Amino acid sequence: MASPGQKAFFVVLDDHNREHFRTYPSQQSPMRHIDLSSTGSPSIPKNTTGSSFYERRGLSTSAFLESSLVSNNDANDGKKVPPLRFQAISVRYMVLGLFLGIALGILLAFFKSNSVVINLISLPGDLFTRAIKCIVIPYIFSAVAVASGDIMFAGKGFVIGFKTLKIFVLFWILSASLGVGVALASRSFFKLEGQEEHHIEYNYVQLSCDQVGGTLQSFLQNDSIRCGKADSGAKVNFEVKEQTNFYKTHSIMKVSINDLILTSIGRIVSENIALSLIMMETSAVVVFASFLGIVAAQNYYEKTRRVNYLYCVLLQLRNSCYWALECIMLLAPLAVMSIIAGSLASNQHFSAYTQAGAYVGACAIAIILQMFVMYPIVVFLWTRCNPYAHMRFMIRAYLYAFGLSSSLAATPATLSCLQKSRLCSITLAEFIVSFGSTMNLSTSGLVIPISCVYLAESAGFGSSLTVWQILSLLVLSIFSCTGVPPVPQGRTVILITIFTSVFGTDTLPQTFATYMVADSIVDRMVTVGNVNDDALVVKIVAETTDETVLTWLHS
To answer: Membrane-spanning residues where (predicted)?
Structure first.
């Protein structure tokens, strides 16, 4: 990249080696649009500040860009650009915070600390997470808008969008298939010792009456009820069924497959973007921002000062939010220690980890196979590049993801690592990662089949699993990779919906409580896998896409 203040010279040729447009920095021509659709050549508008903006439609492979963007900031000439603030946080500090959090959490759990101490330990991590969520949604909104505008301005919107979607779908299918395979291979380890076939236990009650020593009895002959002493032809045990659900204490929402599909599709389009930002409905925010960026890219006026104010506002909002995230992420090691310690101290049922050890181990094996075997093979076959060299730059993002247990909150660290790897322009990285953090949760679809089979086997009715149920589990797991509903415990809602639909039961097994405790560890590994998914998608798209224009726009 040329240094700031360097002169820019551009030569644009079509496929027949014919020159169509030449610009010089000294020219102060107005922003204009040249229609060269007959040759498929690009058109180059130019603003009044001396900075050229290159719009390319029908991309030609013989377009040459010499030098770089003109900058009026001559004061920075010769100065080294400082690195991102939180790139200075080395991996060793993150690892140190992680291990200190584990040690502190185990210590607090061993001494059975009360809730006041645990809340004080968790407070820094909670404040850090709240601050990240406060900034990351406006950042994603502005970053997607700017990235979509740049990509459409460069004439690459359809190419990059379709290629990204194609890779997403491939990863969904591969992840769900791997999850079903690992679940079937591990099902024998999920059975609990002495577990009988699944049956429903009821708590029966007996009702006394006015007669001394008598109970309320029901006769099968005529379904009559009377008060009396024990009779061989009468039933004295009654089952209580609560009809109004007034005393129902289950906190997990149960929805049907149809409701889940309709809700997932409906949340793509926002009816109130301000409310979507408040409710953190990321899918609706990303889709709205994409269309806003496309509008901003086409928004220029020939009879004004020719300044794209909408694009400038979005660009400055993105830069401001990113700077704020840099400052907040400086506290990440302390926050990770607080979050890990508070999580371990609050879940003091260590026996549950032992009982669900096979489940945690199966999920860990599946995620390792996905991250280090299956996806690298796909990347190598697609790009003929070494994927592990790229994954080496993502170590810091993996640590952030494991500590924060949120791929959305780890988005700034992911983009920082991608920028440090110099793999692609920040425009392409922001576009893919922002969409991926909300719509590409393939690792979630990887562990859902394992969770369903674990619950079935541990409850005693996993032996009744048929081929059609396995196929249904595969299809529903693929669908779950597209995202989770914007409700608390969203992945658990999908799990319950798939489990009750595939196995045809309305009740959850008693091992569900054990699953919820063990899932606190699995969820962190799932977050790492989701971050890795987005990073490898960026790798494939960057290696197979001509980014000349996007890199220049970012300059």
So the answer is: 93-111, 131-153, 165-185, 273-301, 322-344, 356-381, 393-411, 431-455, 467-487
CATH topology (fold) of 85-193+271-554? Proton glutamate symport protein (1.10.3860)
Beta-bridge mates of residue 83: none
The bridge status of strand 238-239 relative to strand 9-13 is unpaired
Rounded CA separation 458/460 (Å)? 5
Nearest to 438 by CA among 144, 91, 25: 144
Nearest to 124 by CA among 335, 346, 328: 335
Nearest to 522 by CA among 362, 354, 338: 362
SS3 readout for 308-321: CHHHHHHHHHHHHH
State the pLDDT confidence band at 191, using cuts at 50, 70 and 90: confident
Residues 204-256 have pLDDT tens digits of 666 677 666 667 676 655 666 767 666 655 666 666 666 665 555 544 455 56
Q: Which regions of the chain carry the CATH code 1.10.3860.10?
A: 85-193+271-554
CB distance 44 to 63 below 8 Å: no
Beta carbons within 8 Å of 462's beta carbon, 6+ residues apart: 187, 190, 191, 453, 456
Tokens of 270: 């926002």
Q: How many CB atoms lie within 10 A of CB 98?
A: 18
Quick check: 151 and 427 in contact, CB under 8 A? yes
Q: Which pair of tokens denotes residue 6?
A: 């360097």
Amino acid in position 229 = K
Q: What is the DSSP string of 105-143?
A: HHHHHHTT--HHHHHHHHHHHHHHHHHHHHHHHHHHHHH
pLDDT at 238: 67
Contacts of 497 (CB under 8 A, 6+ apart): 254, 255, 256, 257, 260
